[in-house]
Specification:
The chain is built from 4 helices and 23 strands. By secondary structure, it is mainly β.
Length: about 400
């Protein structure tokens, strides 16, 4: 497998400037020369990409259903799926594509930009308590909004649909702020039953380092929304006691591996998407460090300049725009057991990563031709993906015969 890093002209210029004492014209010219040489080496032609896509086609992709801005999915014990649409619809979908009417009792969502109805997961003991968890963007006063997480009991109805009862909000982003980007609100239960929530920094930068706000953090809670005594900052009280890690940007994937380690990915700014190993109480550095720069071109110091912050295990430039994440544990693709699968939005790809202890590498990239929003593993080990945006398809991936 190739482990060459991705290279861009801006990265080369940035690196060469750090050498110091070089005239800018020389540095620019040298970087551009190297960039075009590097492009020949690292960038495949269209024909090469097509050939590689055929060689990498390790699966058959079968369209199952079409949705309006789908965002997340999870499987029910009976094999059907719960699928969220950003405008606020929660649907039950059979594996042959039959969709229920919208489940009743879903909260009003603030739909627009990156906001709306988000993640959906089951309680670890769903078969007994029927609890599901939803995340969504919630409106506040004065044109503000923030993510919220709620739980409710799902009652299935004879017509194939369902309704939510005993709805309660168990967590909110604080404070609510203006804008419609970077909610995060991905959800995952740990093997020992704690609820983890990704809370992105809402494009406001500095909250990621502010311990009096829960933006730019990963949160750990009990299943009822209360705060576990073992959280790293529990003794500080207030909102700070929720925090598990800090210094994050836009977290859109969260998964536990077979050893119980927590991994998360996040979108970088202009460059520097990240896959991180999440460790209790650590600071991941944003916005003080990043392997990308701000969109206006303002440099951000690289991770290597501040070793006190946790550095990513993989960093992507050009970006992949990661969304959705599983660590595969099925038998249908035995060669991929314990691999991670990440959906790519701007990259329009499904990215496979491999893990070696506490390190990780990109192993393969499958061209999907559409923005991939969500990835899940089915009960039989098939891999399911949701395309992004209006008309997004639900696809079932199975091995080539």
């Amino acid at each position: 497998m190739s482990r060459f890093p991705s290279v861009t002209g801006s990265q080369l210029i940035k690196a060469l400037r750090k050498l110091g004492n070089c005239p800018w014209g020389f540095v620019t010219g040298f970087a551009i020369t190297i960039f075009f040489i590097g492009s020949t080496f690292f960038t495949a032609t269209a024909d090469q990409k097509a050939a590689r896509a055929l060689r990498n086609k390790s699966f058959v992709s079968t369209p199952v259903a079409i949705f309006d801005e789908p965002w997340a999915m999870t499987f029910l014990p009976d094999g059907r799926l719960l699928v969220t649409e950003k405008a606020g619809r929660l649907l039950i979908v059979s594996q042959d594509g039959k969709k229920s009417g919208p489940i009743s009792g879903v909260p009003a969502v603030d739909h627009g930009g990156q906001g709306g109805l988000g993640d959906v997961i089951l309680h670890p003991f769903f078969s007994k308590n029927r609890l599901i968890y939803l995340s969504y963007a919630e409106a506040g006063g004065r044109d503000t909004r923030g993510a919220a997480v709620a739980r409710a009991r799902l009652a299935l109805t004879p017509d194939g649909g369902g309704q939510l009862a005993d709805f309660e909000i168990i967590w909110r982003q604080e404070p609510k702020v203006t804008g419609r980007g970077h909610f995060g609100h991905r959800l995952a239960f740990s093997p020992d039953g704690f609820l983890f929530i990704t809370s992105s920094e809402r494009q406001k930068f500095s909250p990621a380092q502010d311990m009096k706000q829960n933006l730019g953090k990963i949160i750990r809670l009990n299943d009822d929304g209360s705060v576990p005594a073992g959280n790293p900052f529990a003794d500080r009280g207030g909102i700070t006691k929720q925090i598990w890690t800090l210094g994050h940007r836009n977290l859109l994937g969260l998964a536990f591996d077979s050893k119980g380690r927590l991994w998360s990915h996040e979108m970088g700014p202009r460059g520097g998407d990240e896959l991180n190993l999440i460790k209790r109480g650590e600071n991941y550095g944003y916005p003080l460090v990043s392997n990308g720069d701000h969109y206006d071109g303002t440099p951000i110091p690289d991770h290597a300049t501040r070793p006190e912050f946790m550095a990513p295990k993989i960093s992507w430039t050009p970006v992949i725009s990661p969304a959705g994440f599983i660590i595969y544990s099925g038998d249908m693709f035995p060669q991929w057991k314990n691999s991670g699968f990440i959906g790519g939005l701007s990259s329009q790809a499904l990215i496979r990563v491999t893990f070696e202890g506490e390190t990780a590498f990109e192993a393969e990239r499958f061209n999907m031709g559409k923005r991939i929003r969500e990835v899940e593993q089915g009960p039989d080990g098939a891999i399911w993906v949701l395309e992004d945006e209006t008309g997004g398809k639900l696809l079932k991936l199975t091995p080539n015969p």
